[in-house]
Amino acid sequence: MGPSNKALWKRCGIAATRSVKPVVSCRHPCAANTDRQLYFLADAPHVLKNIRGHLVRGQSFFLPAAIVTKYELPTDEVSVKHIRELAVIDAERDLKLAPHLKPAHLDPDHFAKMNVASAVAVLNHSVGAAMRTLVSLRLLESEALTTAWFVERVFRWFTLMTSRYIGTAMSLFKQDAHDEAVAFLKEFMEIFAHVSIKSGNAKEMFKPVQAGVLITTSSALHIQHQLLSVHKFKFVLLCRLSQDALENLFSCIRSRHPVPRPLEFKLMLRLIMLSQFFKPSTKGNYGIDDTVDLIEFVEIKKAALKNGVKAAGDELLNDSLLDDVAPPLMRCKWSRWSMCLGTSPIA
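The chain above was modelled as a monomer; its predicted structure follows.
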């Protein structure tokens, strides 16, 4: 969503406005002789953080009149003041309605603004349900229902755009659920195309976060339709369209230097790759692989070049480590290795 990304979008003809249908793809540069398209998306967690950012800065979202009428909302304004009032009331209670919401999430510092979990804590379905409960108890004014409705809509959009489980995946096996999800995403695009984001009497402008919602959602709808209908996928997890893996890598690289230089980036990347190769993960649902690391084969190859192929092969055969680590594996794969080393297979 930064200037570099928007410059690339503009160069490729990607655009989104209030009145014109979003242009979300261009001809794939590596498939010039086909109709294959290259789709552009903004990262959904970043879009969510931007929505939270507008709210905590004191800006309000003004919904289109058609949406206010359709859902019988008490007002068209979505304001963070109702969420702040909820946080104050919840802080005084032992049994909390929104346990993940903290006052610090509504006044984030520089690093908290980059935290996705703090944004989800604000724009969460439990926050919307808590505001509805407080309105029914007359602890919040009825105008908070509009904010609750908006928060629930944003959270559902985020859940669909970052789906990781079959229950929230896009799939044609449950046609009714799929059609309902597509209809919701299209309506969400319509809302953000005509919503106004401003504070006080400021001039109304089409914000980058609105373009991000339109482009990301439209691209996701096109991609899931192509994968499900054309390529016959059973289901599509839209989280695969996010850059979570890249963000996890960047967070590790920036752990020592927030803005690393090229050499520091290269060294940190090498350390991360080596640590993942040699050190088994303490978390996860997989076991340790008992196979021999490829680095041992590299050492054998070096020995073959230095001392002669036959000597290296004899060294491998007499190595006690071979019998201790994975003798069945080595016996079944020795014929393949022997062809590389020029030795005869084990009898």
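Residues 319-347 have pLDDT under 50 and may be disordered.
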